[in-house]
Design brief:
- Helix content is 39%, strand content 20%.
- The chain is α+β, with helices and mostly antiparallel strands and 433 residues long.
- An eight-stranded mixed sheet has the order 1-5-6-11-10-9-7-8, with helices on both faces. Strands 13-12-14-15-16 form a five-stranded mixed sheet, with helices on both faces.
- It contains 15 helices and 16 strands.
């Protein structure tokens, strides 16, 4: 009896029919990031577990509930739950922070968190993210937010709001933590077990709790912006000034703390109400202490991550335009074994020129081959048999119009094939106009 094996819960197969949608996001992300001077980096899928304990924070949901960790001999490894920690580790380990600053890198990668699967929230998910290391200026914050906004606009997305906040530095956060502890003290027993432990270790995590009870209790909690020190307050004011100068609308949301402990000062989210509960399509901020926490010199840093699955959900919801699927330009149908070699040669020649070409690999009859070519959406077909081999010519058929053009299958094959293709494309453009 055969064992039925399916993909793990919380993962998805990205099928060929959908890959052009992913290319739409990935290509746009690369182009926009590079236009801002960012370069791509690729990091390991797993890291030493200590990296995430030190960076993400032991009181976060990610570390406490969601990481996939394995023991390999005497070493613990964790599948990356996010991209920032590994990227900063890579910049440090490879000496890139000794080079010209700011260092600006982006990545497209898969991440892993053990969460309850739902629309827009998977256990293996994909992110486009970036990090800028070296600038303490609010100009950098505005630049990173502008990049995110530019990408969302490039993808044609609408009705997305930018929410910003400042969660201060360790100095002003200390006073804020005291205020939060005093606020939650009277209702401590109503908090979930996780938040009871957070109350002493990191009370700001309570504001990010998913429990409806904790969310209700936190509604009237003190806000961090009332406790900012002069430096953090000035930095936040500068960010607002720069965003206004760029024409980027924003709302101040004092409840945003982000889900990871390494954030300082600026935090932001781009949110929508059109894809259900998982409405945050981009989140990020500043983490000025992370480089030092990982063993480097104190170096200001910031960045963001976008969930590609959520972006695609929203694009589909809003009817955004995707890149077209790669089309089959030519299908060559050899009628017998004697024509197969010539079909292979012609396909190789056309492919080397950049065209998509197939020929029969299933030893089908001509009728079945034409049916296959039609299913594949071939723009042109060409039948090769004994007559074509003897004459050195074949008929190239336009599958949309039915028009046939006789072309050489010898020395001038590619030249004539390309002319027919270009004429077809030009005619199509004229008809659209």
């Amino acid at each position: 009896m055969a064992i039925k094996i399916t993909r793990p819960n919380g993962t998805e197969d990205i099928l060929p029919k959908n890959i052009s949608k992913w290319y739409s996001v990935e290509n746009a992300a690369r182009n926009v990031a590079e236009s801002f001077g960012f370069k791509e980096i690729r990091i390991p899928t797993f890291e030493n577990t200590d990296l995430f304990l030190r960076s993400v924070g032991e009181t976060t949901d990610v570390v406490q509930k969601e990481m996939y960790t394995v023991m390999a001999k005497e070493t613990k490894f964790t599948l990356r739950p996010e991209g920032t920690a590994g990227t900063i580790r890579a910049l440090l380990q490879n000496g890139m922070l000794n080079e010209a600053l700011p260092q600006k890198v982006f990545y497209i990668l898969s991440c892993f968190r053990h969460e309850r699967p739902q629309a827009g929230r998977l256990r293996e998910f994909h992110q486009f993210g970036l990090e800028m290391v070296g600038s303490k200026s609010a100009r950098a914050d505005a630049e990173v937010i502008c990049l995110a906004k530019t990408l969302l606009d490039t993808l044609g997305l609408k009705n997305i709001e930018l929410n910003i906040n400042s969660i201060g530095c360790p100095t002003c956060r200390k006073k804020y933590h005291e205020a939060l502890r005093a606020f939650f003290a009277d209702r401590k027993e109503e908090l979930c077990d996780t938040c009871k432990s957070r109350l002493e270790k990191n009370p700001m995590r309570i504001l990010d709790c998913k429990s409806p009870v904790c969310q209700e209790i936190a509604k009237n909690a003190p806000v961090i912006t009332d406790y900012l020190c002069e430096e953090c307050s000035t930095h936040f004011d500068d960010l607002k000034k720069y965003l206004t100068s760029l024409g980027i609308a924003y709302s101040i949301n004092p409840k945003i703390v982000r889900g990871l402990d390494y954030y300082t000062k600026t935090v932001f989210e781009f949110v929508t109400t059109e894809i259900g509960a998982q409405g945050t399509v981009c989140g990020g901020g500043r983490y000025d202490g992370l480089v030092e926490e990982l063993g480097g010199k104190p170096t200001p840093s910031l960045g963001f991550a976008m969930g590609i699955e959520r972006i695609l959900l929203l694009m589909e919801k809003q009817g955004a335009t995707f890149l077209p699927e790669k089309e089959l330009d030519l299908y060559i149908a050899p009628m017998d074994e004697s024509a197969v070699t010539k079909a292979m040669q012609l396909a190789k020649e056309a492919r080397e020129a950049g065209y998509t070409v197939e020929y029969d690999l299933m030893e089908r009859g001509l009728k079945a081959q034409m049916k296959y070519a039609d299913k594949k959406g071939a723009a042109f077909t060409m039948v090769l048999g004994e007559n074509e081999l003897n004459s050195g010519t074949a008929k190239l058929k336009n599958m949309q119009t039915g028009e046939q053009t006789e072309i050489s299958i010898e020395d001038k094959f590619f030249e004539m094939f390309e002319n027919v293709m270009l004429n077809s494309m030009f005619s199509g453009v004229l008809e659209e106009k």
